[in-house]
Structures are given as C-alpha cells and as structure tokens.
Write a structure and sequence with these properties.
alpha+beta; about 270 residues; globular; single chain; 6-stranded antiparallel sheet; about 35% helix
Length: about 270
C-alpha cells in the first residue's frame, strides 16, 4: 500500500531491536516557487531560497510551544498508565525539535526536523519497549498536530491518545469511505502483524471497516457520517501490569493507524 506523506508511520517490528517502534514522516511543507523574472530569466535563486527557508523556520514551532501541547494532568495520567516515572523532556538544536525520555533500557528520542529543501521529517530512535513507545507516540502526535497547524495543515486526521484516571482512549479518525477500493486487504495485514508480534488479534474479517480486538480490548468503528468516523479503543488501566496494557495500546494504535492511513491514501486516489 502506498503511504500518505503527511500521515505518520506508527509501526512495530520486534526484529528491529532498538528501532522496533517507528514514528516517521517526510513531506514538503511548502512548494518551492518558480524563481523566474517577467522576462523568463532566473533571479538569484540562492537568495530567494534562503528567504523562503527563513520564513519556514519562523513558522516552525519552538520546543517550548510543543511542550505546552500536553497538559500536566495528561502527563500524570500517562505516567500512571505506563508506570514510566522518567519525565519527557523537550529541546531543540537548530532546525530539529527533540522529545526525549531517559527511561531504561535506553534513552529514547523522537525528533522533528525541517530540512533545507523545505521537507519536514521525523524519526524515533532507541525505542525498543512498549511503555516508552506509548509515551513517545502520545507526545509525538500532539507535537506533530501543532507543527501541522503552523503550516496551515488542519490535523483532524491524526490519531489522538487521551488518558484519564481509569483508562486510555485511542481515537483514530478516518475520512471518506472509498468503498470497494478498500476491499479486504486489511485482514491479511492484521494476520501478518499478529504472526510477527506473536500477539493474538481477533477480527470479524470485515476488512478496513470491521471490528477487531487485542487481549479482549476492542477497536470499534464509530461512524460520524457515511464519509467519516473513527476507530476507537478504550484500554482500562487495571488490565494488568504496565507491560501488558502498553503492549495492547501499542498494537491497537499500530493496527488502527494502518487502517486510517490506507483509507487516507485511497481517498486521495478517488
């Protein structure tokens, strides 16, 4: 399946060891204009390009603004859910915004970079365990939404993780029902994921719009209209130890975001 450049890849592959969890995007935040004079001759491309890059950097949120996207209350609930006491820290280095966590077995970091060519990219490093991944995904998605807003991209399509004192709710929006284009290929993807991760996934074989469950926790379709809705999972904090509930959260997010991303691509093909 072709991927959407503005939809983050949130996946898990245990064979990749310290890079087992991914959070990656790469797309152009601005279209570089045609640097032409009325007579058809090129202006000083370097100077004009540098002016545009400076404008992009002015719009790129600083680390403090990204840090503000997650409330203290959400941080506390997320800590209770994952049992990760090491705080998330935000920083920046030139064109890079960095989200870090020092929880063992290794320090994890998720970075967003505005590259010279006007491309926004992200990469998650040193994140082999699920409880840290849940935190990095939570903070990363909130930060990415704010970055998108700064570049006039309305981020309603991004997954949202919301914690309260009793559970984590994962809401993964989708837009447009591409009908027969999204046949039943998703069922095979879910089976492959289950084999790779050794995580039993129960599915009603309903394809992209079917229901499924991981460890008894359902991911259900909540329709808002014929063309929009969300894949929703509600994971209770008393499900078990932090390894188990974080594992379930990670897998439901990975499977659900694959569904939504695929529909996002197919929508653009119609």
């Amino acid at each position: 399946m072709k991927s959407s450049p503005i939809y983050p890849s949130l996946s898990f592959d245990p064979s990749l060891n310290h890079r087992a969890h991914t959070f990656s995007i790469r797309f152009g935040v601005q279209i570089i204009p045609e640097f032409k004079t009325p007579d058809g001759f090129e202006d000083d491309v370097t100077q004009l390009y540098e002016e545009h890059y400076r404008d992009w950097m002015k719009r790129f949120p600083d680390y403090a603004r990204l840090d503000e996207q997650t409330s203290k209350e959400q941080d506390e609930f997320a800590t209770a859910f994952t049992e990760v006491d090491t705080p998330i820290r935000y920083s920046e280095s030139g064109p890079r915004r960095i989200i870090e966590n020092q929880e063992p077995p290794m320090a994890s970091n998720l970075s967003f970079k505005l590259e010279d060519g006007g491309f926004l990219s992200s990469e998650l490093h040193n994140c082999p365990v699920q409880y840290t991944a849940v935190l990095m995904y939570t903070h990363g998605l909130k930060s990415l939404a704010e970055i998108y807003r700064s570049f006039d991209i309305y981020p309603t399509f991004l997954p949202v993780l919301t914690f309260d004192k009793s559970r984590l709710t994962i809401r993964i929006p989708y837009e447009k029902n591409p009908g027969d284009l999204a046949h039943d290929n998703f069922d095979g993807v879910a089976e492959d994921y289950s084999k790779r991760t050794q995580q039993p996934i129960e599915s009603d074989q309903g394809g992209y719009f079917g229901n499924l469950s991981v460890a008894g926790i359902e991911q259900v379709l909540e329709r808002e209209s014929d063309e929009a809705g969300s894949f929703v999972s509600r994971i209770p904090i008393n499900l078990g130890d932090n390894l188990k509930i974080s594992e379930v959260a990670r897998d439901l997010l990975a499977i659900g975001s694959y569904r939504a991303q695929s529909l996002h691509v197919l929508r653009d093909m119609i």
